[in-house]
Amino acid sequence: MSTAFDNLQTFLLNIFLVYFCFSIYFKFIERKANTLTNELIIALVSGISIVLCMIFPITLPTGYSLDFLQIPFIIGALYGGRRVTVFLTFILVTYRFFLNTPDTDTTLIIYCLLLISLWWIIPMFNKTVTMRKKVYLALLASFFELFSRITKFVLLMPENITMDYFIIYITSLIIQPIGILFFVVFNENSRRNAILSKEIRKFEKLKTVSELAASISHEVRNPLTVTRGFIQLLRDPDLTEKEKKLYINFSMEALNKAEATITDYLAFAKPSLDHVERLDLKKELDYIANIVNPFAEINNVMIECQNGMDIYVSGEKQQLHQCLINLIKNGIESMPDGGKLHIHLQKINEKAVITVTDTGIGMTDEQMERLGTPYYTTKVKGTGLGTMVMYSSMKAMQGEIKVESEVGKGTRFSLLFPVTEH
């Protein structure tokens, strides 16, 4: 019973060692190296696995030993190529000589026969794109190895063919193909998942680009259409000077709106700080509160500002203003029936924290997760540009945004900035 338990431990150890070596290669290394480097690494991985399998064999009660070096040998040969196969054969035979096993010469014959069969299978395995065919070819290579082993005993050592040998052979016949099948399926699934993830990332980028293009065309085309209409009206020779000035003012306002939209997109696409300075958050919040107060009064919203501390951060004044105005404006618009907006400035763990809390409609968890993504907004007539630019500006200023919200009760935005003394 103890021997069987020890052999089970040894078997699991063999499987774990081979699985660990190959999983590290296929998950982290294969797609980041060129062909020659891949061959060298898989030769090293397979060689180490072969040696470890030979160091920890399974000893049967009959005195025979059984190892599973054929699994890393065949897997390494199929994925590494012909040169790797020759190298692995050399490692296997050399280590057999080092161990001074009595059947080294016959082992050399077995693996020379297996090398010939793999020389024919490897090109077909590399050209095959379907997993089913790869599995068939891998199992074929496994049966070639078993056939070579039978041939050795039948032709060269017929006197050693006993019941114990058949036990070893049947055990190999069952375990070896299953092990190879497992690793081929695992490796191909890893490759397929990596390709699928890459395609998904590419699709998401294309989707973002298409959404941004649609948004830009919509937000810029409308002001341009307005400008074009007024310019056409200016061709009328009977227009008075007052009408001309009115049409020109309308056209300039539309063009300014288009310019502001393009500026927002550029700020999102490439957030950067061109004019970094030391900013007094208390002073800046007072300035922002004075700007947004008229808008708040129109919407029946009362703003409470608690900013008694002098806290300084490094950043660009224009981006900070744009970020805070967008945030406060969104908070006011989330309270269609009026309410209270609280702005609080404090210092926590060397971080300047600006908290903006409203008593609006709130957001769901799904809405909070999508905040800051291109062309996403919770407002009926919104474009998502304000929140998108806010997240980009905070990233440029090395800041952080935290959101807490509950549907029907309101939302709290916390902006965290690194505090600066100089």
UniProtKB/TrEMBL annotation:
It is a multi-pass membrane protein. It is an enzyme of class 2 (transferase). It is found in: Cell membrane. SMART domains: HATPase_c, HisKA. Its EC number is 2.7.13.3. Pfam families: 5TM-5TMR_LYT, HATPase_c, HisKA. One of its GO terms (biological process) is cell wall organization. InterPro entries: HATPase_C_sf (IPR036890), HATPase_dom (IPR003594), His_kinase_dom (IPR005467), HisK_dim/P_dom (IPR003661), HisK_dim/P_sf (IPR036097), Sig_transdc_His_kin-like_C (IPR004358), Sig_transdc_His_kinase_LytS_TM (IPR011620). It catalyses: ATP + protein L-histidine = ADP + protein N-phospho-L-histidine. Residues 215-421 form the Histidine kinase domain. The chain crosses the membrane at residues 12-28, 40-60, 72-95, 107-123, 166-186. The keyword Transcription does not apply. Gene3D superfamilies: 1.10.287.130, Histidine kinase-like ATPase, C-terminal domain. GO terms for molecular function: ATP binding; phosphorelay sensor kinase activity. Keywords: ATP-binding, Cell membrane, Kinase, Membrane, Nucleotide-binding, Phosphoprotein, Transferase, Transmembrane, Transmembrane helix, Two-component regulatory system. It comes from the Bacteria. Its main location: membrane. The keyword Zinc does not apply. This is histidine kinase. It comes from Domibacillus aminovorans.
